[in-house]
């Protein structure tokens, strides 16, 4: 099963259960005070997704590796390109 199929299956399962609870199609009866919380579940899940995404991005940025060798090689290639362009008449400021 592909990752897309897994996500679609999970979303479909969640939506079917959530809508069944909202439409009162389950043997579990939902009271008025619980109806508000059940109707806000998708908002909470989206907020949770956003918070987890921010945490993952912050972690990956903080653990990003510096490649000193690659930086030196890139600077060397830039210098070579500048010299090549200077021989062809390009002037740098």
From TrEMBL:
Top-level taxon of the source organism: Eukaryota
Location of the protein in the cell: Endoplasmic reticulum membrane
Pathway entry: Protein modification; protein glycosylation
Matches recorded under InterPro entries: DPM3
GO cellular component terms, A-Z: dolichol-phosphate-mannose synthase complex; endoplasmic reticulum membrane
Short name of any one Pfam family annotated for the protein: DPM3
Signal peptide bounds: none
Primary location recorded for the protein, binned into one broad class: endoplasmic reticulum
GO terms of biological process kind: GPI anchor biosynthetic process
Keyword Transmembrane: yes
Residue ranges crossing the lipid bilayer per the database entry: 38-59
Family named by the database record: Belongs to the DPM3 family.
Subunit structure: Component of the dolichol-phosphate mannose (DPM) synthase complex.
Protein name: Dolichol-phosphate mannosyltransferase subunit 3
Organism: Brachionus calyciflorus
